[in-house]
Write a structure and sequence with these properties.
Keywords: Signal. By secondary structure, the protein is an alpha+beta fold. The protein is 19% helix and 28% strand. About 2% of the residues have low confidence.
């Protein structure tokens, strides 16, 4: 029995080795069922035969890579005609389609924040088989006036999505209408005249299958005129 096992191991090793240097000959001699049993239905996965992951790289040098957000738009869950975005709306980091499924007449709310105070984040976490992404962001606005608070009150117990515009024009969709972002806010009067009297506006959500997907330039976000 030991001799048979040893012989079998030698034959398997030779088959795998030959598959790397003469794959066509091995495929011709070895029955397909045997190839699939030892090497998998997709072929040999040893050495340089196949690569499961994609190569990753930093952004190309000699190009701008500015941090920060320059514009922020909000849409309420009730603004949509269907759940958006869902899995079929996202592919390879991009939103698929040419329109946002909004009800007639809906326009996005614009958050006008202080310079260099808006940022967005995302992260993927969890054990294998259960990983998901979370989205979050924040912005600060000078002041504490009735009109500002009236606008913020519209987000009270109402979820939605946020579209953040990066400094290179990239637009990323945070949250979804079916798993809406939760909006939070706080105010700070400061203690003396040169302190910052401001409103801190935040949003967060998790349970997404993707990092915030990029909205193609062809897709129009309806904005106030």
């Amino acid at each position: 029995m030991r001799s048979i096992r040893l012989l079998g191991s030698i034959l398997v090793g030779l088959t795998l080795a030959l598959s790397l240097f003469a794959p066509a000959d091995v495929h011709a001699l070895v029955p397909p069922a045997v190839q699939d049993f030892f090497m998998g239905a997709d072929g040999v996965t040893l050495g340089m035969a196949t690569v499961s992951f994609a190569s990753m790289s930093r952004k190309e040098r000699q190009k701008a890579n500015l941090g920060g957000i320059i514009k922020l738009y909000l849409l309420s869950t009730s603004d949509f005609t269907r759940d958006w975005p869902i899995d079929t709306d996202v592919a390879a980091g991009l939103i698929v389609g040419t329109t946002i499924p909004l009800k007639t007449g809906v326009i996005a709310a614009v958050v006008t924040f202080d310079l260099d105070t808006c940022r967005v984040k995302s992260d993927r976490k969890g054990k294998l088989g259960y990983q998901n992404c979370s989205h979050s962001g924040e912005a600060k606005m000078a002041g504490y006036e009735a009109a500002q608070m009236a606008a913020i009150d519209k987000t009270f117990n109402e979820g939605g999505i946020a579209i953040a515009v990066y400094k290179d024009g990239t637009r990323a969709v945070h949250g979804s209408s079916w798993q809406p972002l939760e909006f939070e806010d706080s105010t700070d009067s400061g203690a003396k005249g040169d302190d910052q009297l401001q409103i801190d506006f935040k949003f967060k959500g998790d349970g997404y299958a993707w990092h915030p997907p990029i909205l193609p330039t062809a897709v129009t976000v309806p904005l106030p005129v």
